[in-house]
Amino acid sequence: MTRSRFHQIFESFSRKRILVIGDLMLDEFIWGNVKRISPEAPVPVVEVERESYFPGGAANVARNLREFAGEVHVMGLIGTDAHAEHLKQLLAGEGINLGCIQQDPGYQTIVKTRIIARQQQVVRVDREKRTALTPLQKERAVAQVEKILPEIDAIIVEDYAKGLLHQDFVDAITGLSQRAGKILAVDPNPGNILKWNGVSVIKPNRSEAFAAAGMPLTDPVEPVTRDPGLLEVGAILSKKWKTENLLITLGEHGMLLFAGKEAPYHTPTLAREVFDVSGAGDTAIALFTLALSSGATAAEAAEISNHASGIVVGKLGTATVTPTELIESFENHSNE
Residue 146 class from Cβ within 10 Å (0-12 exposed, 13-18 middle, 19+ buried)? Predict the structure, then answer.
């Protein structure tokens, strides 16, 4: 893609309005140093220096979008605890619309705590309890989607298999978006088997794709377009999900796009160094969907998404990419 074509697509980003639906989380990072081993057990003692908090899960997708899109709405379930209020404050501070969030006093807000010392994650602690939407909560959510559809350009569904997404809810979202002619992007989870038919794009990573296709995971083969296992998985999932576009993220090998009858399109990674892959998939689906809704072809959207992901894996923590960083990436790697 030329720089001029990128800028043509990029200029539309700020006019787009996106709804993100999925499992909402609070990411907590505890940063410190390790100078000794505990006398109580053979584990490091982390001397805490600081703590930081970020929106996680589907909320991180919304955060990635907010750097670029004109309006971002987020839908999900949280509790009424202190963690829920902290998450709401973070999202509101980013300018994200919280009108579609439901709060349940009986629900435990999901918190993922990462303890990091000397740039390395020592341990992760998850506080969560998988809870499905009640019939009333599902009815409210569907009504909210129906109401907001005329005001948005696309929907992103993020499944972390924490209980929010069930087939009847998914069917309602899919039906509403298709009737309204809206872009619907899905980041699936093989731990929560759902039918996704006729959506705009589905974006699993390599291991998720193999799991969803029911195939044993194989070692990557280069070049990517000659990886027999990956190509077979792409063919199986394209037929299974009947999706317009299947985007498989491949970590250090970039991304592979399956779009209809066209030959698979590979875009290699642009990452110079990989410090932290947490949240890279969130960045990928956010920018792919935003680009697609801004008039990009699927291949162009994959390139933009790949540039963004290459930037974010070079950062520690639940990071996002900025417009300036994305522009600089295209300026450095594209032709006029």
Answer: middle
Q: Provide the sign of the torsion angle of the four alpha carbons 18, 19, 23, 26, taken in this order.
A: positive
DSSP result, 164-207:
S--HHHHHHHHHHHHHHT-EEEEE--TTS-----S-SEE--BHH
Q: Mean pLDDT score of the chain, rounded to an integer?
A: 93
What confidence score (pLDDT) does residue 145 get? 98
Grouping H, G, I as helix, E, B as strand and the rest as coil, residue 38 is coil
Relative orientation angle of helices 298-312 and 3-10, to the nearest 10 degrees: 90
Q: Please state, for a pLDDT cut of 70, what percent of the chain lies above it.
A: 96
For residue 279, the SS3 value is coil
Is 153 annotated in the active site? Answer: no
Report the CATH fold assignment for 3-24+56-110+129-333. Answer: UDP-N-acetylmuramoyl-L-alanine:D-glutamate ligase (3.40.1190)
pLDDT in the model for residue 203: 97
Question: Residue 229's closest CA among 247, 217, 245?
Answer: 217
Distance (Å) of CA 333 to CA 10, 67, 292, 327: 16, 21, 21, 10
pLDDT digits (tens, 9 = 90+) for 28-45: 999 999 999 999 999 999
Confidence label for 269 from pLDDT (cuts 50, 70 and 90):
confident
Domain ranges across the chain: 3-24+56-110+129-333
Nearest partner of 109 among 149, 68, 78, 138, judged by Cα: 78
Catalytic, out of 27, 159, 227, 282:
282
Nearest to 91 by CA among 57, 51, 52, 59: 59
pTM over 0.85: yes
| pLDDT tens digits, 92-107 | 999 999 999 999 999 9
Distance between CA atoms of 158 and 65, rounded to whole angstroms? Answer: 13
